[in-house]
Amino acid sequence: MRTIDSLGDLSGKTVLVRSDFNVPLKDGVITDDGRIRAALPTIKRLLDAGAAVIVAAHLGRPGGKVNPDYSLAPVATRLSELLDQPVILAEDVTGDSAKAVAAALEPGQVALLENVRFDARETSKVDAERQELAAEYAALADAFVSDGFGVVHRKQASVYDIAELLPSAAGELVFKEIDSLSKATDNPARPYVVILGGSKVSDKLGVIANLLTKADALLIGGGMAFTFLKAEGYEVGKSLLEADQIDTVKGYLATAKENGVDIVLPVDVVVAPEFAADAPATVVPVSAIPADQMGLDIGPESAALFADHILKAKTVAWNGPMGVFEFEAFAGGTKGVAGALEETDAFTVVGGGDSAAAVRILGFDENKFSHISTGGGASLELLEGKTLPGIAVLED
């Protein structure tokens, strides 16, 4: 994979950087700036090399139309604070404002294009439409650096097509992501334990199938655990259940047994009569889930069981929370897993999305984890063994 060094002398050049600034907002305020902070090393390196930097990024899913609710204005403000210098925000993606900003940009300065998903061509399935937009991006700069790991699994104009038009390389973040995740997928130190959570089994079908040939143990929590429990013959009450996946899960359980892979399911869960922060929580064995209640977290015995597996492992990958961690009463399982990961000496990778957010929101020390990914979908696809288009296009 080509690195920034391959681009040669960047002094006086304009570099277009694709970052992932898809940050959570509440009332126009950024609630977690982790992805912006993760982009700083690449931007600073390019500035130190004497380049002018134009950043392209997306926020949310505006559907290919201009929507002020998804403007990158709050991101420009926060990026400016973190860099301690002004960040010029273009009023459009590649229109008159973007062209004017790019033309006026001096070495050492930073500009941010407006949300690339305001232009429907960015995510078009039609190659010619994406390539047309990519040519407009290319006209703004001399080189391209891909640093938005959260989108490298997408064949999009500012991720894939632009890399075919300009001298291109992976940024510091993307290189670090691939290097770290490869340690957890390519010949990992064993025992290799993978913790999967989140709501749906169907979101992780390919990942589970791939891991049944690679991992030593799969620890299953979150809403997806109830489909596994149902496949094992347990009643799950009102818990989240994908009935159409039960046969698939039974197949996974059989394959795991054949391959000597230990699938570890919860032994107790925290149930409540409704999905609400103030719902009364009760811990019950998985064999005694009430018909009128739903499981919203793994229980304390399950958390201890999972922690035991984690502490014996040499490599651990975690993707997906163990429960509804946003509600204090149902955050114990996720806290237990994160605490064990913080304590172990194993190489630990936390998949992006909700898992990474949980680490920060629940107050854990990010430095105690070997790597916290910025890309949920991209890290999942790597665990699944897929080729990522935005990475393949950067390879010689």
* Computed Rg: 22 Å
Number of helices: 13
Order of strands across the biggest sheet? 5-6-4-1-7-8
The structure class reads alpha/beta
The proportion of residues forming helix, as a percent range, comes to: 25-40%
Pick out its properties.
single chain, 396 residues, alpha/beta, 6-stranded parallel sheet, 13 helices, 33% helix, elongated
Short description:
This protein has 396 residues and is α/β, with parallel strands linked by helices. The chain has 13 helices and 17 strands.
Would you kindly provide a written description of the structure presented here, covering whatever features stand out?
By secondary structure, this protein is an alpha/beta fold. The chain has helices at 34-48, 73-83, 96-104, 127-138, 172-183, 205-211, 225-231, 246-259, 300-312, 332-343, 354-361, 376-383, 389-392; strands at 14-18, 25-26, 29-30, 52-56, 87-89, 110-112, 143-146, 168-170, 192-196, 217-220, 262-264, 268-272, 282-285, 294-298, 315-319, 347-350, 371-372. The strands form four sheets. Strands 5-6-4-1-7-8 form a six-stranded parallel sheet. A six-stranded parallel sheet has the order 11-10-9-15-16-17, with helices on both faces. A three-stranded antiparallel sheet has the order 13-12-14. A hairpin with a 2-residue loop joins strand 2 (25-26) and strand 3. Helix 7 (225-231) packs across helix 8 (246-259). The longest helix has 15 residues, at 34-48. It is elongated and about 65 Å long. The relative contact order is 0.13.
